[in-house]
């Protein structure tokens, strides 16, 4: 038995197996191998950075603009990191783009609703003033 002060002490593989070797004699993956055949999670092999998930814009759109579209934006933004971690780089970029798109649609819908409300109130005020001045 080794002590933690010796090379190969506690926390080390006592059998000095190569973590990148093939399966052992029983067909089981070696220590450190991924048994599912997927590449290990870590830095992506293409040197690309994770796309901006636009979560802040989704939250702001939900609070200040249109609730349904803002919620969709938050859901899309939350999936960006998960997709990136499993190696679905195109899916992560698509989710980030969708999150931004739904946040923008939410802001446009809120502006359209406010414009319609202002027009309705102005028309109501004009009709009210016109009806009271003629009687």
UniProtKB/TrEMBL annotation:
InterPro entries assigned to the protein according to its UniProt record, in alphabetical order: CD225/Dispanin, CD225/Dispanin_fam
Major subcellular location class: membrane
Region (Disordered): 1-45
Pfam families the UniProt entry points to: CD225
Subcellular location: Membrane
Cell wall biogenesis/degradation listed as a keyword: no
Ranges of Low complexity composition bias in the record: 20-36
A single GO cellular-component term on record: membrane
Transmembrane stretches, start-end: 55-75, 102-130
Top-level taxon of origin: Bacteria
Keyword tags: Membrane, Transmembrane, Transmembrane helix
PANTHER family: DUF4190 DOMAIN-CONTAINING PROTEIN, NG5
UniProt protein name: Interferon-induced transmembrane protein
Organism (species): Gordonia humi
């Amino acid at each position: 038995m080794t002590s933690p002060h010796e090379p190969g002490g506690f926390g080390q593989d006592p059998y000095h197996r190569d973590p990148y070797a093939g399966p052992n004699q029983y067909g089981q993956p070696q220590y450190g191998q991924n048994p599912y055949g997927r590449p290990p999670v870590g830095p992506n092999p293409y040197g690309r950075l994770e796309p901006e998930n636009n979560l802040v814009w989704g939250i702001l759109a939900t609070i200040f603009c249109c609730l349904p579209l803002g919620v969709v934006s938050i859901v899309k933004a939350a999936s960006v990191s998960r997709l990136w971690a499993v190696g679905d780089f195109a899916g992560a970029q698509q989710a980030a783009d969708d999150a931004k798109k739904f946040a923008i649609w939410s802001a446009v819908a809120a502006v359209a609703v406010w414009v319609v409300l202002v027009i309705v109130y102005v028309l109501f005020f004009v009709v009210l003033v016109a009806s009271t001045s003629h009687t």
